[in-house]
Structure formats: structure tokens, C-alpha cells
Amino acid sequence: MSPPRPPARRSTPGKAFALVVAGGVGKRIGSETPKQFLPLRGKPLLWHSLTVFDAHPEVSGICVVVDERWHGTLMTAEPWTSLTKPLLLALPGQERSDSVRNGLKGIRESLSAAPERGDPTSPWAAAHPRGDGALVLIHDAARPLVTARMISKSLALARAHGGAILARPVPETVKRADSGGTIESTIDRRGLWIAETPQTFVLDLIWRAHQEAHAAGVHLTDDAQAVERLGEPVLLCSAETPNPKVTVPEDLVYVEALMRQRLQDGAS
User: Fold this and answer.
1) Residue pLDDT, tens place only, 250-262
2) Which fold has domain 16-267?
3) With b meaning 16 or more CB within 10 Å and e meaning fewer, what string describes 102-125?
4) CB–CB of 137/56 below 8 Å?
5) Angle between helices 148-161 and 45-55 (to 10 degrees)
6) Cα 60 from Cα 128, distance rounded (Å)
7) pLDDT < 70 regions, the chain
8) pLDDT tens for residues 190-211?
């Protein structure tokens, strides 16, 4: 069930850009290849979310934050060259929040580039001159099951309120324990939600939020936290279908099973 909605505070007509964070090394998955490039149904894991953003009519461009050694591959090799939207690459930082800031910076700089100057990022500027009112969907590459409906719902809420994240209610009993593993209390799960991605914001808002959090030395566990610090509203967008994050090898098996089920449901 979706949470009740406050009245809209703003109307943001600008186009949207996807920022896909793919800079991790995937230590917990136990592979020398970063998990975002591991095969999933015959394609790299990262590919599955990129194709959804690429096909979405409201997304004007895609920025991928990824280690430099993969830049040439994404720009010149299949299947990446079959993407139709302008593609921008940014370097990862030490922490996820640093990677997101690098991606946001790249998008902002590319949007302000003048196409007539022959800048290779000019398709971005041409797609959305000056970036006025632009939105950005920040997504973890390790979540390959993002859907067009998830993107559309989060964009609609972010346009109306400034920020929205995909999330789902906590379904199980939650315990608080001490350092020794002894239960201290049972937490009331009413009102508790598990944050997922995409997390969608007005570009200028999330840029300011990340800049201020970085300046204050705040460790961010997600992007909404940065906006929350500013006192700005971030709405919850209920995830109606599974959108798991691949962290350990077993997750790949689970995600592949979900993909098969989606294909079967689509064919029935």
C-alpha cells in the first residue's frame, strides 16, 4: 500500500537523466570481475538497467559512474554501442556519495556545454539546453530489475514534490540488539520502509544537498538522506514488483529466477 500523498509543492517540467552508479568492485560477490559486469541471462548485469532507462520516453540521457578501465568498452563495444540515448561517463569516488557527486557534476557540466563548440557531450546540451528544471534518477547498477513503471512513478512524484525514492514497507519483525547479540527491544515496524533505487530529484536540489553534506563531513547511506538534511520533502514511491540488489552470488540466481518469471508472465 502506498503512503498518503501531501499536496504538490512544485511543478517541474524539465527532462530527466539517469545516473547509474556502477563504480563498486563487488568484493562480497567473490569475483575478479566487478559484479555489474558479471553475466546475467547472457548480458552484463549493468546492461539490464541501462536498457530500461534507454527505452524510457522521459529519459533524455544516461550517465554511468564507472571505473576508467571500462570507459573504452562502454563507448566502443557491443552491446553498449546499441544504446540510443546520449551516454556520459564519470569516475567513481572513494565512497558511493563521492561517486554520485562526480556523476551529478558531470551531468551539470554537460548540460551547460555549448553544442556549437564541438564538445563531445553536446548531445546532452542539445537535448536539454541549460538543464532548466532537469531531474535525475540515481540508480544502483546492482539493481537490474528496475521497470519503466518504477521510473515513471518516481518521476511524477519528483516533478510534483522535488524528490521521491522507490521503497517498500518492512515486512518482517525487526529487533534491536546489543553488541553481544542479545535482543534489547522489538522495533515497531509501522512507518518503516526499505529504501531502494531509483531515487529521483530535481537536479539542482540534489546537487546542493550532496555539496552541503560533503562540506559538513556527513556520511550518507543514500541520496535521500542528503535532501532530508535540508528539510526538503522526499516522498516514498511503493515498489510494486521485486527490485533486489545483487550483493552475493546467490542474489544472481534469485534475480535470474525473477527475470524468467517476468518473461513467463508477459507471455501468458
Assistant:
1) 999 999 999 999 8
2) Spore Coat Polysaccharide Biosynthesis Protein SpsA; Chain A (3.90.550)
3) bbbebbebbbebeeeeeeebbbbb
4) no
5) 60
6) 8
7) 1-13, 26, 113-132, 267-268
8) 999 999 999 999 999 999 999 9
